[in-house]
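Hey, quick one: can you model this chain's 3D structure?
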Amino acid sequence: MKNLLKVVFVIAFAMLVNNTFAQQKFAHINRTELIQSMPDFKTAQEKLEAYSKELMSTIEEIQVEYNRKLEEFQKDSESWSAEKKEVKSQEIVSIQKRYQEQQASAEESYSRKQEELIAPVLKKAGDAISKVAKTGGYVYVFESTAVHYFDEAQSTNILPAVKKELGIN
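Sure thing. Here's the predicted structure for all 169 residues.
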């Protein structure tokens, strides 16, 4: 009798667990596609492009100065004294160093600006995904591009709902 009771308990528990998992709702989304469709992202990209051009302008000015000094050195150095050659050579080395420093500084500045402009977009997308997931009663939302396999028949693509939440057509 005890064994029969254990078997019944195990079967009832298995049915309960199976029923519980069957009731859970799963969703997926292509977050990259969502973010790239957001007007805020496009605005951030435009600002980053303008900022990049500004940074590159400064680097190009240094490059022009370097090319001018190098050309002058190659053209006129034969008529210069050893002291003048040394001074002009040091100027060229100094410009090269300034160019490298400006390039490193520009890369760092660009990365900071990118983080500053993109972080709010990512947060807005994440908040919208969470809201749609909670409203829809989803237990898990998977990034569709980050998993090797998922059964789309058992998971809902919430991209259209999240776009609607964000006011994106």
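One thing worth noting: Residues 87 and 127 are 60 Å apart (CA to CA).
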